[in-house]
Amino acid sequence: MAVETAQAWIDEFRRATDEDEEIQAHGKFYSCSFLLDMEEHEVQVFMHRGKVEEVLVDPGPLDERYQFALRARAETWRKFAEETPEPMYHGIWSASFQKDLSLEGDLLVLMQNLRCFTRQFELLRKTGVPV
Amino acid sequence: MANFSPVTGRYVTIDVMGDECKVFFLENGEGQPLVCQHTAGCHNHQWRDLLEDEEITKNYRVIAYDLARHGKSDPPKNKEWWKEEYKLTADYYTEFITAFCDALELEAPIFMGSSFGGNVALQLALRHPDRFGGVIPVEAADYSPGFFLDWWQHPHANAAQVCASGVWDLMAPQSPDEDRWATWFYYTQGSEAFKGDLYFYSVDHDLRGKLDQIDTEKCPVVMMTGDYDYLTTPEDGQRTAKQIKGAEFIEMNGIGHFPMSENYPLFKEYLEQALQKIESKAGARTA
Fold this sequence. Notes:
The complex is a heterodimer. Chain A is an alpha+beta fold. Chain A has a single domain, classed as Nonspecific Lipid-transfer Protein, Chain A (2-Layer Sandwich), CATH 3.30.1050. Helices cover 42% and strands 21% of the residues of chain A. In chain A, strand 1 and strand 2 form a beta hairpin. Chain A is globular and about 30 Å long. The N and C termini of chain B lie far apart (47 Å). Chain B has a single domain, classed as Rossmann fold (3-Layer(aba) Sandwich), CATH 3.40.50. In chain B, helix 5 runs antiparallel to helix 6. Helix content of chain B is 36%, strand content 18%.
C-alpha cells in the first residue's frame, strides 16, 4: 500500500470516528488500543476518550502495544467493508462464530468497550479498508 | 381522545414446580391462541408489532408473556432466588409454559418462540404434543452450543452493554435502525437473566437423536430461520426440520435472530406462511 493511500485511509477513518454522533455521545470512556490484522496489512488504532489518538499502519515489532486484536484474511475485511455485508460478514461475533475472524489478546478490554467498538467497526462500511 | 393501544396487560400467578410465579402478559385479538415467547434475556416487547397487527389479531388471540425474571415478571415470590445461580432447564421451562397456558384455559394454542423460545417450542412438541395446536420454532435447532458465556455477567464490564451489543450482529444490518435499537435497548434490561437463560439454550437443550420422536400428526411443526442468524443458521434449522417427520422449514432472507422485533413487516410475510401451513395441517387432521 502506498504511503499516500494509507494516509488517506487513516484520515478518513479518523474523521468518521471523531465526527460520529454515536461514538461522541457515548464514548467519554472509550479509551483502548487494538490491532486490525488484515493479512496484507496491519492497522493499530489508539483510542482516547472517544477520539482517534493515533493510527499506525504496519507497525514494527516494538510498536505493538495493543490490548486486543482482530485477525482475518484480507478478503474477509473487504467483505466487512461492503455497504450491506452478506450474512456472517456483518459483525465481529458473526464472523468469529462462522468465518475466519479470530479475536485475540485481552478480550475483557473489548467487552468493556463493546458498544463503541461495534459502532466504529461498522464505520468501515463507509471508510472502506486499506486492503 | 387518548391514543390507546388495543393491547392490554395483566398478571396471572401460577405454580411452576413449587415456584410461585406472578406472570405478566400482553394480549390482543380473538380466535385461536397464539402464545409468544421472547428471546433469552429479553421481554415481551419483542412482539410489540405482532400484538397490534389487526390482520393477525382478527383471527388469533396473540398472547406474549414475560418468562419469570424477565420484563415485568419477577423472580419466584416464594424463594430466596438471590442465593442461587439461575440456570434455566428444559424441565422447568416447559412446566412454566404449560402452567401458564392452563391458567389461561387456552385450547389448542399455537406456541411460537424465537431463539431459546424456538428451542423450547421443539421441547413442547416432543413432550406435550396433545396440548398445542402446533408450534413455530423460530431461529431454533436441535442443539445450539457456544453461547453460555461468562462475558454476559462479568463484573469488570458493563453487563447491560455487553449483552445488548453482544447480540447486535445477530440482527441483519438492513433491518430498520429504530427496530434494531429498540431490541438493543430491551437487551440492556435483561443481563441478570441472560446467562441463566443461555444455560438452557446452549447446555440443557439437546434434542439430538430425539427429533424422530416428535409427532407432527398431533402437533404440527413449522420452523423458520433468518439468513443473518450466526447462532442457529438456516443450515441448522434445515438439518433439524429434516429429522422431524412432517415438519416444515422456511428460510427467511434478509433478517436475523430477532425477526419479530428487528423487522416485523418482513417477518410477517413468513409468519403468514407458517400460520397457513399449520391451519392446513389442522384442517387435514379434522377432515
